[in-house]
Amino acid sequence: MEFGVQLPSAGAGAGASSILETALAVERLGFDAVWLFDHLFTPVGIESKYPYSGDGGYPMSPDDPFFDPVALFGVLAGATSRVKLCTGVLIPAYRNPVVLGKMLASIENFAPGRMVLGAGAGWMKEEFDAVGVGYERRGARLEEYVAALRTIWSGSPSSFEGEFYSWTEAGFLPAPTAPIPIVIGGHVDRALDRAARIGDGWAIATTRGQGRGIAGATSRVDYLRGRLDAHGRDQDDFDLVYQSALWFSDHPNEKLPLTGPPDAIAASLKQLQDLGVTMVDLAVFGPAALIVETAQRFVEEVRPLL
Questions:
Q1: Which residues contact 8 (CB under 8 A, 6 or more apart)?
Q2: Mean pLDDT throughout 10-33?
Q3: What is the rounded distance in angstroms from the CA atom of residue 86 to the CA atom of residue 164?
Q4: What's the angle, vertex CA 245, arms to CA 280 and CA 255, rounded to 5?
Q5: pLDDT surpasses 90 at 211
Q6: Contact (CB, 8 A) for 66 and 17
Q7: Which residues contact 16 (CB under 8 A, 6 or more apart)?
Q8: The whole model's pTM is what?
Q9: Which residues, at least 6 apart from 183, have a Cβ–Cβ distance to it below 8 Å?
């Protein structure tokens, strides 16, 4: 099981120096990956409901900075030497696949084998409207987008004819030096089926009514495995990414399984490993100094218990 840390690329106080310093510290501490997530902007008057909060409220403010993850990939590819660069998740539909495919392949050549693309269908209608992309069939668009990226990255001249995207035969070199895994996000049944059919992994997510913590994740992973079997996929070649807040406190919280004392956090991680989780994205909410301090404590007090 690999461990990564969410970088402070969004929210109050996010800035270029804090993002870079955190990434370098995470690499120095021996973590396997750094993680970024994706939004274009924060509407002043948002009508879309955020699916991962109890009341649908979105936790970001229009006054908060939100750095672009693809741009940060380019910076981090040059600044780091070992950690994987991951999105959890990026909304591909906001960008033309020819443009995004070219950018990611170019960056990956400077960070060979170190890129993981988490990709989701999206939920904020205001962003789709702003870039002139249809919102209603965003799941079908994501599926076609994944096929388009893999065609672009094939290393051979290719054409593509889809419902949403098409191009005449052309060369797209440079190709990535290694296949870029595409981890599919989403929480509804059709999203899990999509991950099982076309993804290299699933970014575990649950919402209201699906349970929380490890119990909720277990139920959804069981459903996913049924879909993997139905599509003839090998579960051993499929990544499961678990994102969770990391916070040290005196008492564990089963709804937030990576909070509490070190032994409780380690016990939860062992449960996740038994579930088949292959990558853990640790999110510490606070300034860069707190993220690094908490990450170091994880290395010193939790990793030895695993």
A1: 14, 18, 19, 22, 287, 288, 291
A2: 97
A3: 26
A4: 100
A5: no
A6: no
A7: 67
A8: 0.96
A9: 88, 89, 116, 117, 118, 119, 195, 199, 200, 201, 202, 203, 239, 241
How many C-beta neighbours within 10 Å does residue 250 have? Answer: 7
SS3 of 105-156: the string is HHHHCCCCCCEEEEECCCCCHHHHHHCCCCCCCHHHHHHHHHHHHHHHCCCC
Location of structure tokens 């895994």: 181
Q: Which residues contact 123 (CB under 8 A, 6 or more apart)?
A: 48, 49, 50, 51
Yes or no: say if 33 and 3 are a contact pair by the CB < 8 Å rule: yes
* Dihedrals phi, psi of 212, to nearest 5 degrees: -125, 170
Say if CB 175 and CB 110 are below 8 A apart: no
2 φ, ψ to 5°?
-95, 150
For the chain, the straight-line distance linking the first and the last C-alpha, in angstroms and rounded, comes to: 10
As a dihedral over the C-alpha atoms of residue 154, residue 156, residue 158, residue 164, rounded to 10 degrees, the angle is: 20
Which tokens is 75 given?
Answer: 């910076």
Beta carbons of 208 and 50 less than 8 angstroms apart: no
- Asked if 156 and 174 count as a contact pair (C-beta separation under 8 A), the reply is no
Contact 11, 281 (CB under 8 A): no
Read off the tokens for 249: 């406190």
Spatial separation of the C-alpha atoms in residues 203 and 121, rounded to whole Å:
12
pLDDT of residue 258: 97
Q: Per-residue pLDDT averaged across 135-157, rounded?
A: 98
Look at phi and psi of residue 269 and say left if phi exceeds 0, alpha if psi is from -120 to 50, else beta: alpha
Dmax over CA atoms of the chain, in Å, equals 60
